[in-house]
Write a structure and sequence with these properties.
single chain; 310 residues; alpha+beta; Aminopeptidase; 2 domains; 13-stranded mixed β-sheet; 9 helices; 13 strands; 33% helix; 32% strand
């Protein structure tokens, strides 16, 4: 029997149900073209998790659909929820969220949502269905065209390409020590480093990632990075100060030096983020005049809802 919630049955989108999926929200476009595109998408995704896209049935009729994606094995993002009857959208959304609550509570999967008006329905149904916000991430932006650091910078910088991978990983690990938002205690630092390089993709350049020194003492690290898929847009993968140098305002200086480095290499827009509980980094954003643009909410299903198993 398919999972039933609120008199609705929830099933994954599988081959043979494409027409039902598309029928939830008829379009003015060519139906055959839409069907072909969806079929090709499902074929490309192959062994995707079947919970990525869901259909709600009321009896034999499709009543709604949920379009989601696994950003990684333990993080899920809901792109859209639609219902055949607009008046029933809240009930359909609650059915989907209750289904995901039971599934994700068991498997330890979190759900990502934006705290924006267009995501209000998703946030409401998640909260009603046993999900609670586990953490929040603030996003900021800054126009860095021609940017120059307004702070006196006493540091000399040496790049990853000069220091070598072993020494750089060692200093990166030291900078993250004691940082509650960069817990590396149970991770292999080399694996973490390789994941960063992989995420940088074709835009990775070993001359960009740098360590700040005062005389011969390493003070902190800053990892300027242009996005491979967004022209003239970049970020700082990490800004960290070694424990013995914290509390002196050096994080603000390193962050500003990273912004200037991006600007010197043609980046015009900086995008940054941090956990909202990371008050030192939030102050750095303020001091360097970054503009808050949004908040990501990370939900975990912690409460059983009606229909959940043991």
């Amino acid at each position: 029997m398919p999972p039933a919630t609120n008199n609705l049955s929830i099933l994954p989108l599988e081959r043979g149900r494409e027409t039902l999926w598309l029928g939830v929200a008829p379009s003015d476009g060519d139906p055959a073209k839409r069907l072909n595109e969806l079929t090709e998408t499902l074929a490309r995704e192959g062994d995707r998790d079947p919970r990525s896209r869901l259909i709600a049935f009321e009896g034999e009729a499709a009543a709604g659909r949920l379009d989601g994606v696994f950003l990684n094995p333990t993080l899920y993002f809901i792109r859209q929820i639609l219902a055949t009857d607009g008046a029933a959208t809240e009930r359909i959304a609650d059915a989907f969220a209750s289904f995901l609550s039971a599934e994700f509570r068991r498997d330890g999967i979190a759900v990502l949502a934006w705290d924006k008006p267009e995501a209000a329905l998703i946030n409401r149904c998640l909260r009603r269905s046993g999900f609670v916000v586990d953490k929040e991430k603030a996003f900021v932006e800054k126009d860095v065209s021609g940017y120059r650091s307004p702070h006196e910078d006493p540091f000399a910088y040496r790049a990853l390409s000069e220091l070598g991978e072993d020494r750089f990983i060692e200093l990166l690990t030291e900078a993250a020590a004691g940082d509650p938002f960069e817990d590396v205690s149970e991770r292999d630092p080399r694996d973490e480093f390789r994941e960063l390089v992989e995420y940088a993709g074709s835009a990775f350049d070993a001359t960009w990632w740098r360590v700040a020194f005062t005389e011969e003492s390493p003070v902190g690290v800053v990892l300027p990075q242009e996005f491979a898929d967004r022209e003239h847009e970049g970020t700082l993968f990490y800004v960290g100060v070694l424990p013995e140098f914290r509390g002196r305002g050096f994080g603000t200086i390193l962050h500003a030096s990273g912004l200037a480095y991006l600007a010197d290499r043609g980046v015009t827009k900086y995008v940054g983020s941090t956990d909202t509980r990371n008050h030192p980094m939030m102050r750095v954003f303020d001091r360097n005049e970054c503009v808050r643009t949004g908040t990501q909410l990370f939900y975990k299903a912690l409460r059983k809802t009606e229909g959940d198993g043991p």
